[in-house]
What we know:
Helix content: 40-55%
CATH architecture of the largest domain: Orthogonal Bundle
Number of strands: 6
CATH topology of the largest domain: Helix Hairpins
Number of domains: 2
Radius of gyration: 23 Å
Largest sheet: 3 strands, antiparallel
Amino acid sequence: MAEYKFYLKNGSVMTGRGYETKGNEVIIQLDNGNLGIPLRDIHKIEETATSEAPIEGTIHAPKQEGVEVPMSSAEQEIKAGEGVIEKAPASDNTARLSELRAEIDSLASDLTALEEEEKKTQQSIDTMSKRRFKYNRIQMMQLQNDLEPLQQQLYSTQQKKGELLQRKAYLHGEINALEHQ
């Protein structure tokens, strides 16, 4: 099974078992799930190693000796120059750092709002659930029906919060890479 190294423009390097391109995003197959990264954030993709036993559900097959594996559209776009990094002048780094910090500040306020929404939704669920041991079977079924939209809202809020935290971590990584250029 082939392993791939994904060199990101922020300086990070990730290893995955496979990948596929969907639109402007590269979906990386990791050991514990998949991760989507915008194509514009990838510097290059490199096949690094093969293991003896193929893993079920592989997206890309390993290279065989003497056989040329066609490049994916992501690799073609990166090879065509879209993913080429040149060291930016200090003024460009300063401007980009400012943009990234502003985006992190914006994410922080969005996270605060989501955490408040999450807290209120959880309190509503808890309040409604406290009364349940006084209910008969019909009332319990109604309570479950009443709780379902709140639980879905809580789940949705937690998903959004997770996405924002991922984005924030990515931005911190990009800031770190720019500061150490």
